[in-house]
Structure prediction request, 545 residues.
Amino acid sequence: MFEIRIHSRGGQGGVTAARLIALAAIRDGKYATAFPFYGAERRGAPVVSFVRIDEKPIKVYSQIRKPDMVIVLDTSVMETVDVFHGLKSGGTVFLNSAHTPDFEGYRNYNVDLTGIALRENLVVAGSPILNTPVLGALAKLAIITKESAKKAIAEMFSDERNIKAAEVAYQEMVV
Amino acid sequence: MLTVSTGNKAVALAVKQAKPSVVAAYPITPQTEVVEQIADYVGGKELDAKYIPVESEHSAMAACIGAGITGVRTFTATSSHGLLYMHEMTNFAAGARLPIVMANINRSIGPGWNIWAEHTDAMQERDTGWLQVYVGSVQEAYDATLMAFRIAEHNDVLLPVMVNLDGFLLSHIMQPLDTTDPGDFIPPIHLPHAIDVNNPKGYGGLTGPDDHFRFRWDIERSMRDSVKVIADTQAEFAKRFGRKYGFTEDYKCEDADVVIVSLGTFGKESEVAVDILRREGIKAGSMRVRWFRPFPKLDLNGREVVVIDRDYSFGFGGVLARSIEAQNKADLFSVIAGIGGQEVTYDDIAGFVRERRTGEEFWFGVNGNV
Prediction:
């Protein structure tokens, strides 16, 4: 089982990102679940959501304690939240950032998703959309296939700029 | 067709396919998405039903009763305080023998204010004459909702059915969902005592001591008859759609020395605990109770049993544990866990089994308790 924890702020689309990743994995023929932790959070507060991907049906409903991967959609949450909590040794860190991180003991990746969203004019109500381009990054890491990433985005969003942004993220991601 | 869905939206889709004539509801966390989605279906003309946005849950159930008594299919959904607010009317629905289907997204009762999963809300409806089923996945939420209409409306039942989903754990999780055109799986509703304006009769009049007990007995007789209807419906469902359901979902119980018994998502998490325990040489099994009313005959005699209750009856005990105790001569360890959405993992559940103390009650996370 591959377990992902997504850190973002309420309203940034972390929950939708989790759902898109799960949908893409299912389109790959795998089993997947996506769920947020609903607390007393409000828009702008740090939130987490989770994705599990496996080859067999998933029976676990409790929160992910030891993720294989952590995705940080908003690096400012790192000032107050320990995003590495429970992350497996040698696990993967992905930051929405123009700067390549160098966290010891982990596999570090980054793409400037915010920059891509702004360049592609993928902005809703003043906020750049991060949850569709992040699928491009995950496809580059072969967690999901590129084809299924596109399928998942198309199933949930009709605006083609979402797929374009995921494509750009795929190209920009250095592995 | 394989898609993905939350538990809430899976229920809404099943309701759309069951084609009720009237849906009356009041939104409450974590049920809101169910009724929003149904309102969308009605607004978008995908479901030809009257959607009544009532001012309270009491009115939601009253509206379903009023509509249902004319012989049409009705649905509502609620959670927690909403369910308790309709309590007077849930009794009326069963007493009036109306096959209303309701989704209850299990949530704790305040104060303190808490929106997370707990079964105490539905447990407080235990004695009303409603059938109750607890599901363990998004797929099962969808399947159970489809089956609920057929079971409730069967002439040998004519009682309301409550489909229970763990709040957030099931209502808000996204999982694979295989959707099906139910075709004629749910036959047209026929309520033998429906109001007929051409042949008016009185309803709910004063019923004296010589007659009232007959109505009560008739509810119990139908509750007993519902066992066969449920079994037949689940068999027919399996035949048509390939997914099998029983009164319980048993996992490695055949040769188990110790059986974990639970409701809802705990039953799935317990299966993971069983695999861990078996690797350690402990012959464990998991029995997830699906139908709570009618309460099934569980074969647990002579076994060690660890019952996990996400509910409590103060001054008495875990409702599931005490129900099993009343029926079986088993060595039972009663665990109270997951109250108010308390996080309980498969490791925790394995721990309950390893450290079981027969005859005792244990509140998970509370220090120094017995």
